[in-house]
């Protein structure tokens, strides 16, 4: 059997590895428009902010590895069309040479594309997006210019907040804009985001929330950013307002979700029996919502690639759904979440309650210590846990994995009240904040 995979980042690579490592004799063809594969985009801000030595280790595999496994790879090649009836993929390389590959099974792993604000001045130099490795290189080069002193970041989600920190670490004046009233509003409730906002301000980032960009001004290169509330002199703009599914190749043939993502079943199969879709171009099932939705995360991409690979290879494997677990660390302040915030639950029309608690991570006699803030969100009727949020300068990241499992398995808030949680002063308190938060639930 011959499988063609379009796209070779996290989801495409996971699918290819699953097929090549588990199903001998399977013919695998990878087609990608980029110069490289397997780029860990989540490390871009660390590299641009000089928190790591370079970008080289942000690639976890290469073309040679796949060729050794027997895969055929076409890099810097753009797919121009797909004949779904004849099962043929048409593409051309950077020299304009046209080629085609037939397939028995097709896996679409085309990822997502940035949302581009359609406002005056959008073609000026000095305007950047941040997803691909090449875009990271452009941002890094531009930030190295002596005449770039003030950087505006539009969008205060994860990527925007991270690149704002990176620019500040490079000694720039940084202005962070978002239409929402706080940073990270898609992941956390205001009681949590207000602490991150204070952290950003304390580290010298100028916040402009509740503002919409309306125009870029300049002579060839951007010189000013205009919003609905003011005009700001800037030397560089980084757009990070979000992403949408890159589903252009199959949108006229395959069923799609409301945002354009390919609609897939729990085997990652699309409405065409020969076509699978994985990663950011496809839908996913949320255990918190108990519904199909769209969550663009690298971890979800890897899991979906593994599932598609096995199903294409002949082993039936069902997806178990996701919680959208995520985390961020900015200037030493750590936040993690999974499932739904109170605000997200309200938007989804799920009637929830929540329980909050705040305490030191360790007993008071431990010198290296800091407060931890926790919120557990649960559905009123069933009392099942649908989300959790934690924040601290301590490393509290591993806790979110338990809550992810709780959401997946429909664990109730009451089950946590007497959960066996160990105690040792080196790590935590005898009255653990998870236990205390659960006990405070109505």
Automatic annotation (TrEMBL):
Residues 2-305 form the FAD/NAD(P)-binding domain. Residues 332-428 form the Pyridine nucleotide-disulphide oxidoreductase dimerisation domain. Pfam families: Pyr_redox_2, Pyr_redox_dim. Gene3D superfamilies: 3.30.390.30, FAD/NAD(P)-binding domain. The keyword Protein biosynthesis does not apply. It catalyses: 2 NADH + O2 + 2 H(+) = 2 NAD(+) + 2 H2O. One of its GO terms (molecular function) is oxidoreductase activity. The keyword Ribonucleoprotein does not apply. It is an enzyme of class 1 (oxidoreductase). Its cofactor is FAD. Its EC number is 1.6.3.4. SUPFAM superfamilies: FAD/NAD(P)-binding domain, FAD/NAD-linked reductases, dimerisation (C-terminal) domain. Keywords: FAD, Flavoprotein, NAD, Oxidation, Oxidoreductase, Redox-active center. InterPro entries: FAD-bd_OxRdtase (IPR050260), FAD/NAD-bd_sf (IPR036188), FAD/NAD-binding_dom (IPR023753), FAD/NAD-linked_Rdtase_dimer_sf (IPR016156), NOXase (IPR058076), Pyr_nucl-diS_OxRdtase_dimer (IPR004099). Belongs to the class-III pyridine nucleotide-disulfide oxidoreductase family. This is NADH oxidase. It comes from Pseudolactococcus raffinolactis.
């Amino acid at each position: 059997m011959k499988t063609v995979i379009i796209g070779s980042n996290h989801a495409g690579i996971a699918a290819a590895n699953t097929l090549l490592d588990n199903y001998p004799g399977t013919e695998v063809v990878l087609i990608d428009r980029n110069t490289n594969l397997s780029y860990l985009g989540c490390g871009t801000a660390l590299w641009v902010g000089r928190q790591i030595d370079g970008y080289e280790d942000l690639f976890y595999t290469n073309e040679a590895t796949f060729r050794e496994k027997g895969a055929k790879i076409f890099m810097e090649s753009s797919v121009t069309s797909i004949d779904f009836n004849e099962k043929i993929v048409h593409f051309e390389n950077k020299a304009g040479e046209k080629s085609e590959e037939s397939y028995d099974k097709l896996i679409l792993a085309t990822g997502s594309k940035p949302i581009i604000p359609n406002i005056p001045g959008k073609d000026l130099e000095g305007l950047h997006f941040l997803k691909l490795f090449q875009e990271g290189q452009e941002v890094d080069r531009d930030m190295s210019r002596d005449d770039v002193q003030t950087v505006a970041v539009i969008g205060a989600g994860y990527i925007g907040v991270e690149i704002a920190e990176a620019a500040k670490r490079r000694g720039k004046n940084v202005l962070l804009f978002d239409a929402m009233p706080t940073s990270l509003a898609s992941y956390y409730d205001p009681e949590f985001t207000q602490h991150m906002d204070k952290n950003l301000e304390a580290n010298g980032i100028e916040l402009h929330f509740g503002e919409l960009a309306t125009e870029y001004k300049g002579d060839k290169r951007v010189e000013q950013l205009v919003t609905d509330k003011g005009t700001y002199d800037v030397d560089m703009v980084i757009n990070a307002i979000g992403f949408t599914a890159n589903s252009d190749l199959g949108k006229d043939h395959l069923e799609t979700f409301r945002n354009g993502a390919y609609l897939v079943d729990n085997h990652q199969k699309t409405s065409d029996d020969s076509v699978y879709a994985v990663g950011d171009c496809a839908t996913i099932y949320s255990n918190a919502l108990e519904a199909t939705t769209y969550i663009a995360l690298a971890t979800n991409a890897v899991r979906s690639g593994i599932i598609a690979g096995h199903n294409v290879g002949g082993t039936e494997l069902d997806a178990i759904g996701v919680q959208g677990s995520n985390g961020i660390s900015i200037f030493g302040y750590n936040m993690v979440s999974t499932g739904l915030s109170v605000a997200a639950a309200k938007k989804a029309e799920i009637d929830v309650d929540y329980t909050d608690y705040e305490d030191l991570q360790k007993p008071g006699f431990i010198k290296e210590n800091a407060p931890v803030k926790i919120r557990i969100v649960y559905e009123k009727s069933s009392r099942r846990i649908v989300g959790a949020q934690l924040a601290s300068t301590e490393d509290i990241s591993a806790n979110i994995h338990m809550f992810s499992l709780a959401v997946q398995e429909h664990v109730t808030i009451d089950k946590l009240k007497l959960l066996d949680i160990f105690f040792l002063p080196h790590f935590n308190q005898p009255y653990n904040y998870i236990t205390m938060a659960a006990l405070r639930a109505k």
